[in-house]
Amino acid sequence: MSGANEPSTERGTVAQRVADVSFHVGSVPILADVTMDVRYGEVLALVGPNGAGKSTLLSVLSGDVEPTSGTVALAGRDLAEWRARDLARARAVLLQANQVAFSFTAQQVIDMGRAPWIGTPESDDDERAIREATAAADVGHLTQRGFPHLSGGEKARVSLARVLAQETRVVLLDEPTAALDLKHQEAVLQIARGLAEQGRAVIIVLHDLSLAGAYADEIAILAHGSLVARGAPGDVLTESRIAEVYGAAVRVLPDPDTGRPIVIPRRAL
Ligand code: ADP
Ligand code: MG
């Protein structure tokens, strides 16, 4: 991606700062004292067991969920101070469930990614942004199809194209690979890497620890609403920590080609 919305801030600087964030529903703690930075130019993978609070944390980062206590800042400013329209120009969100209320075509869904830029100079980039996003998500053959009739994986990729077309500096992706075939899983992580190379901050919720290990700059593990580890894949993905967090025995092996950690369950013969 290029054009007027090209990130100008230096990579490595803080895009989002989560400080002492807790989120309760009634008296039930969903997130507990989460503190973490998200930096431009990096892919941060958020992993953890079902119900750990990953989607909730992503919603807190996006500003869709207001923490019970603690603060979340974007570009140095508390999210509470952001206007919705400015927020939509600063961060894009791929939700876990790609529901769309009406029978839009895939093209219309992708076009929605440009809505935040209506009336700005960036709208000159609409056509290019949509074209590039459509190609990157490999959905050019689906654009005239009705979104509700697409397969789960096709919906996920069309929704990803919408998020890419938005061309924001922060990109939040909740399990974008869950419904995807092998090739498209890799492609999505390649896209995430490309966004980071452009200086964008990418936070991506993943279940596949090997995928996280292969592509993330850093991995954050969430368990029972708390951050239990954060760091480089090789440091975070240890057999003992995975056993503790997931209650599953695994082997962590180095990828013969890249040296990155591969995580496989231990299986009896
Ligand atoms: P993950 O994405 O890691 O699987 P979630 O963030 O979706 O987990 O949810 C974490 C836990 O909090 C789950 O047990 C979920 O049922 C609960 N939860 C999340 N949001 C709400 C809510 N608004 N009301 C009640 N429970 C919630
Ligand atoms: Mg989730």
Describe the structure.
This protein has 269 residues and is an alpha/beta fold. The protein has a single domain, classed as Rossmann fold, CATH 3.40.50. Helices cover 30% and strands 27% of the residues. The chain is built from nine helices and twelve strands. The protein has helices at residues 54-62, 84-90, 106-111, 126-136, 152-165, 182-197, 209-215, 233-236, 239-246, and strands at 14-25, 28-39, 43-47, 69-74, 77-78, 91-94, 170-174, 201-205, 218-223, 226-231, 250-254, 261-265. The strands form three sheets. It has a six-stranded mixed sheet with strand order 6-7-8-3-9-10, sandwiched between helices. Strands 2-1-4-5 form a four-stranded antiparallel sheet, with helices on one face. A hairpin with a 2-residue loop joins strand 4 (69-74) and strand 5 (77-78). The protein is globular. The termini are far apart. Residues 25, 30, 48, 50-56 line the site of adenosine-5'-diphosphate (ADP).
Helices, strands, pairings?
Blueprint lengths: L13 E12 L2 E12 L3 E5 L6 H9 L6 E6 L2 E2 L5 H7 E4 L11 H6 L14 H11 L15 H14 L4 E5 L7 H16 L3 E5 L3 H7 L2 E6 L2 E6 L1 H4 L2 H8 L3 E5 L6 E5 L4
The structure holds adenosine-5'-diphosphate (ADP) and magnesium ion.
The site of magnesium ion (MG) has 4 residues, from helix 1.
The appropriate CATH architecture is 3-Layer(aba) Sandwich
Number of helices, where a helix is a run of at least 4 consecutive DSSP H or I residues: 9
Please state roughly what percent of the residues sit in beta strands, choosing from under 5%, 5-15%, 15-25%, 25-35%, 35-45% or over 45%: 25-35%
| Spatial strand order of the main sheet | 6-7-8-3-9-10
CATH class: Alpha Beta
Do you know the CATH topology? Rossmann fold
Oligomer: single chain
* Rg, nearest Å: 18 Å
The total strand number stands at 12
Ligands bound here?
adenosine-5'-diphosphate, magnesium ion
The N- to C-terminal Cα distance equals 48 Å
Strand/helix succession? EEEHEEHEHHHEHEHEEHHEE
CATH superfamily: P-loop containing nucleotide triphosphate hydrolases
As residue ranges, the low-confidence spans are 1-8
- The secondary-structure class comes to alpha/beta
Helix content: 25-40%
Shape: globular
